[in-house]
Write a structure and sequence with these properties.
Largest sheet: none
Number of domains: 1
Shape: globular
Number of strands: 0
Radius of gyration: 11 Å
Order of helices and strands: HHH
Number of helices: 3
Strand content: under 5%
Length: about 70
C-alpha cells in the first residue's frame, strides 16, 4: 500500500478527517466506493471554500510517485 503524507500549509482541525478519507480512497478496490468518496470530497470542498481542495488531494494521492 502506498504511503500517505498529508500536505497542509496551515494546521487543520479536520486533518484526521482528510487523512482518513484519503486512506479509504487509496485502500478501496471498488470504483463505486471511490466515486462515493470523491462525491464526499466535493461536498467538503463546497462547504470549505478556503481550504485546500480535498478532491485534488484524492486525485493526487492516486498518482503515487508520478505526482
Amino acid at each position: 500500500m502506498p504511503t500517505l503524507t498529508l500536505i497542509s500549509s496551515a494546521p487543520s482541525s479536520d486533518a484526521a478527517y482528510r487523512t482518513g478519507l484519503i486512506r479509504r480512497y487509496l485502500a478501496t478496490g471498488s470504483r463505486r466506493v471511490r466515486d462515493a468518496l470523491l462525491d464526499e470530497a466535493r461536498r467538503y470542498d463546497t462547504a470549505n471554500p478556503g481550504a485546500l481542495s480535498l478532491t485534488d488531494e484524492l486525485y493526487g494521492s492516486a498518482l503515487g510517485d508520478v505526482a
